[in-house]
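quick one, 179 residues, struct below
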Amino acid sequence: MAVLRRKARRGQGDTPGVDDPLDAAQERRVRAVLALGGMPQTDLADGVQQVRLRLLERAAKGDEAPRDVSAWAAVVASNLAMDWHRAKRRQERLGERLASLRQPAHPSGEESSVLQLAVAQGLDELPDAQRQVLVLRFYADLPVRGIAEELGIPEGTVKSRLHTAVRALRERLHEDEVV
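---
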């Protein structure tokens, strides 16, 4: 993987002259989606490489390039994050890790850290499908129509999942008296 990272940074794959399939803005968006999906910082670089690899594999198979590479990459990143999250759940609950982060007393000036932890825990407790559309809509900034197209589901389903996820997250934050 380290070799692929170095080559990708230089704008080359195995073939000289092949440009990096993700520009810097797309890479930042992919990193954000992965992180918000629950992937730890230590695995983000590998997640970005997986998105690059899938885009390169798609081109190698002769498939048509996605209409919107940025949206396609965000959806792939979201799916990778969900896969990682499911595997992590099998090993141990993410909530245990977040609970251990809360144990140190937070000084009163660090309310944003408490809010961030509460939102992360709230996202963790959402069903995968709701978390996915919430992250794609509010963190990857995809429109409802784009999410529906990329996930292959009706716009109404996206809207319903968003509504339910936002309501559940809002209730969770009120229960924890964070907001």
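Residues 1-17, 104-109 have pLDDT under 50 and may be disordered.
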